[in-house]
Amino acid sequence: MSKFFETLINQTESARNCFLNIEAINRGMAGRISRNTYIAFLTQAYHHVKHTVPLLMACGSRVSMEQEWLREAIAEYIEEETGHQEWILNDIEACGGDAEQVRHSMPHASTELMVAYAYDSIQRGNPVSFFGMVLVLEGTSVKLASVAAEKIQQSLGLPDTAFSYLTSHGALDVSHMQFFEKLMNRLEDKADQQAVIRMANMMYQLYGNVFDSLPLD
């Protein structure tokens, strides 16, 4: 019998391939974006990353007592993810951007809708679905973050301090994904599995919309 993580990867392949074909992502991976585009990316990253811990808390509060093992894993995620939005503001400052302006700004509609969908899925639907968002955000980081950081830094000549979010998540999320794979392979309930798959497919589209919203000079 195949393990659920393998099924999850297979059933999200089409959405993932569409996501990886987005122009802003490919230009970032090649280092062909401006400083303004990079700051715009960090700005939207700030606006969704600041919700990571609240979303994890919401998810943890709603999983069943029979899934205490999952709640314990969520507690570990919370400990690891706390404060990461501040790293992004530091990167913006290192790029010459206005971190405080970003802190008090409103997200782009695409970012706001992505976050709202995650909250709604946890509160109104199946809280376990949130792990579909984890797959998309952390799986993307493993595949893209470190390479993009290197190429963008070479192209723009920015200091190392402008890339703490990307470089840390490229490395950090490798271990997170190994942890995630083990968690998903313990998920036996078919309704939970389908909720995770649906969320992941939706998140590739919604997160893709965030990248499509970035200004490409």
Provide the number of structural domains.
Answer: 1
Taken from the alpha-carbon principal axes, the silhouette is: globular
Architecture per CATH nomenclature, i.e. the level-2 architecture: Up-down Bundle
**Level-1 CATH class name:** Mainly Alpha
Helix segment tally: 12
- H and E string: HHHHHHHHHHHH
- Going by CATH, what is the homologous superfamily? Heme oxygenase-like
Q: Give the helix/strand class.
A: mainly alpha
Helix % is: over 70%
Indicate the mean pLDDT.
93
Low-confidence stretches: none
CATH topology: Heme Oxygenase, Chain A
Tell me the strand percentage band.
under 5%
Main beta sheet: none
Work out the number of β strands. Answer: 0
Distance between the termini: 49 Å
Overall radius of gyration: 17 Å
In short:
The chain has 217 residues and is an all-alpha fold. The chain is 77% helix and 0% strand.
Task: Describe the model.
The protein has a single domain (4-212), classed as Heme oxygenase-like (Heme Oxygenase, Chain A), CATH 1.20.910. 77% of the residues lie in helices and 0% in strands. The chain is built from 12 helices and no strands. Helix 2 (13-20) packs parallel to helix 12 (190-212) and helix 9 packs antiparallel against helix 12 (190-212).
